[in-house]
UniProtKB/TrEMBL annotation:
Subcellular location: Endomembrane system
Listed Pfam families: NMT1_2
Keyword Membrane part of the UniProt annotation: yes
Signal peptide annotation: none
Main localization (coarse): membrane
SUPFAM superfamilies recorded: Periplasmic binding protein-like II
Protein's UniProt keywords contain Cell membrane: yes
Organism of origin: Paraburkholderia sprentiae WSM5005
GO cellular component, as recorded: endomembrane system
Protein name, as recorded: ABC transporter substrate-binding protein
Length: 387
């Protein structure tokens, strides 16, 4: 299925050190770059054969990366940083090779809580008021303790005046199990990637009420990651893998390709649900009827994929904010070691992908600014709601 119109440079004069790669992923729409790379055989031009290995949870992805059973994986940005610091696993030097996507996650509430929120909002009430109608401590789910969904959920709750550590109970549930937990009335809300929010609505067990692109517009989400010793031992392989995935991300921006990838993701080996549950929130255009939801982005002329160290450092500030780690003054240095910016630049040049500028600043939902020039020292202590 390798398209004849592939626009890649052939790669380095020397072949990759390792040619058969096992790549992990979890059943989510934003695994699309890996699936496209596999089915369209983008790796062949760079001397690679890809084997995709679906994992049941993010903990399984982490464990198999650490054991060497997986060479690299589609994984949560924050998970990589947690492993680097030894949070919940042996401390291991890690590498973020590239960003795979931006946006595309959401917060869904149980019907009862969503209805209570709508009623409260109509009379000037707040999320706190809606939560009080439950008569007990609410239970919210994310997908991994140091993962992106935990950080988006905590940030969103805090922006509504709800303390995620004191006012609610949080549990980690693998993405494919989220809808069942909501249907069984074990959850009042969740933060997860697609298509599981869409499925919750389709099954009538929940309502999406917020999008993570409201928390941080164009936020980084999944990354291509591996152990640092893999990069050190196989630098040409790592570069070839980035080239391969950049081509897949570029293909995903092509006309009609989001519908095509939705059909492929629906296959049993990937997500294994009806494509009509995948396609609606996989489009590449903003929805005029729902401007709060920014489209999932995979490429955008290369603007999506550069692994900005400042974006990684943000997760460290949030780990500190929520008491997962003690305050440190080396977040920028940690991010600079993990995020393989030079390797990325070399790979991008070989497949004619532009590298965006380093000077970037983002405004978050609460008005806080974070960017490439933001000092991380004491940043976590700026927030009124924190550990």
């Amino acid at each position: 299925m390798n398209p004849a119109t592939s626009v890649t440079a052939a790669g380095s004069a020397e072949p990759p050190e390792k040619t058969h790669l096992r790549l992990g992923f979890v059943a989510l729409s934003d695994a699309a770059p890996l699936v496209a790379a596999k089915l369209l055989e983008f790796g062949h031009a760079h001397g690679l054969t890809l084997e995709l290995c679906r994992q049941p949870s993010w903990a399984a992805v982490r464990d198999k990366l650490l054991s060497g059973d997986l060479d690299a994986a589609h994984t949560l940005y924050g998970l990589v940083y947690g492993v680097q610091l030894g949070l919940g696993s042996p401390r291991t030097d890690m590498a973020v090779l590239m960003v795979l996507n931006r946006n595309g996650q959401a917060i869904t509430l149980s019907n009862r809580l969503a209805d209570a929120l709508a009623k409260q909002a109509s009379s000037g009430g707040t999320l706190r008021d809606a939560l009080a109608t439950l008569g007990r401590k609410p239970v919210f789910a994310h997908t991994f303790p140091t993962g992106t969904h935990a950080m988006w959920l905590y940030y969103w709750l805090a922006a509504q005046g709800v303390d995620p550590l004191r006012d609610v109970d949080s549990v980690a549930i693998p993405p494919p199990q989220m809808v069942a937990a909501l249907a069984e009335d074990r959850l009042d809300g969740l933060c997860v990637g697609e298509p599981w929010n869409t499925m919750a609505e389709a099954h009538g067990v929940g309502k999406t009420i917020a999008y993570t692109s409201e928390v941080w517009p164009e936020h980084p989400e999944k990354v291509l990651a591996c152990r640092r010793d893999f990069v050190d031992a196989h630098p040409r392989t790592a570069r070839a893998l980035v080239q391969t995935l950049l081509e897949a991300c570029r293909w995903l921006d092509g006309a009609g390709h989001r519908d095509e990838i939705a059909r492929w993701l629906a296959r049993p080996d990937y997500i294994g649900i009806d494509e009509t549950l995948i396609a609606p929130r996989l489009g590449d255009q903003a929805d005029p009827a729902n401007p709060r939801r920014l489209p999932m982005r995979f490429f955008d002329d290369g603007a999506v994929n550069y692994p900005h160290p400042f974006e990684g450092a943000w997760f460290l500030t949030q780990f500190e904010r929520w008491g997962i780690i003690d305050a440190r003054n080396d977040y920028e240095a940690i991010a600079a070691r993990i995020n393989q910016t030079q390797l990325y630049r070399e790979a991008a040049a070989r497949v004619n992908v532009a590298v965006p500028g380093e000077e970037v600043t983002r405004a978050l939902i609460d008005g806080e600014m974070w960017g490439s020039g933001s000092p991380s020292d004491a940043y976590a202590r700026r927030f009124a709601i924190r550990r």
